[in-house]
Amino acid sequence: MSPGWFYLAAMIAAYGVANLLQSMAAARTTVHHTFDPQLLVRLACHRTYLLGLVCQVLGFVLAFVARRDLPLFLVQASVAAGLGVTALLGVLVLKWTLPVAEVALLVLLLGGITALVLSAQPAHSRQLGTEGVVGLAVAMAVIGVLGFFAVRLHGALGSVALGSLAGIAFSAAAIAARPLAMEQSAGGYFSNPLLYLLIAHSIVGQLLLGLAMQRGSTTAAVAAMDAAGAVPAAIVGLLLLGDRIHPGREWLAAVGFVVTLGAVIAMTRYAEPQHHHATARPASGRRPDGARLHPAGR
Fold this sequence. Notes:
Region (Disordered): 275-298
Structural class: mainly alpha
Radius of gyration: 19 Å
InterPro entries: EmrE-like
Number of domains: 1
Strand content: under 5%
Mean pLDDT: 81
Number of strands: 2
Oligomer: single chain
Keywords: Membrane, Transmembrane, Transmembrane helix
Shape: globular
Protein name: Magnesium transporter NIPA
Strand order of the largest sheet: 1-2
Helix content: over 70%
Low-confidence stretches: 275-298
Transmembrane segments: 6-27, 48-66, 72-93, 100-120, 132-153, 160-181, 193-213, 220-239, 251-271
């Protein structure tokens, strides 16, 4: 059995915890209405966010190692399974109340991921050509421009728009990571332009995700990120990087991918805000867990 399966399971748990912790920190930080990197600096002042960032970096490392053997369509779609971990922890720790539709979609998500696991065939990656490297650089510029305008959106729409852009940025980072993981020496890593594209896309994605979570719904932000991030990586992986599906299970992979994608997209419609947002000078007290904030007079 490929060790990638164990890395994949650990990655799901790490991302689930990271989503929850970063959401709590974002809810306690002044809302930003511009595409301002200073948000990351303010978030970094929260120990909760830093702990969440550590979990996210751990998840990123685990995903990076898993991509050595496992296809991108599986690894990227499995990131969405972390949303189930986030929801479960939110209910148990922060007393979130999830609507019945959201619970049903989480169960559907688990079924889709299971189908992808059964259909995926471990294989090493092919290298990405010069055209692919240039494409990743152009994609970063486009994401930045779209983020400049999307940051002006508010509420659930803002969460979905910014979360989707974060997902595309993380998807580009995953595309860079799959062939980069095949490098055999430190010199090969540091001389490969894919490393720097991976870092740049990850930073942009992190900023966009923080902005998305500030808009109110962690579930909507993360679901939009996962949905938007799964498709580009799956297409590029299958067409250019040598990702494989077990012979005769192509239908299972297709069903699993569609079900997973449909579930996370539907979550952006049915997800409810898990917290009201804190401002620089809150009008009233705040619960320590950040789950709910009640304005004065209520």
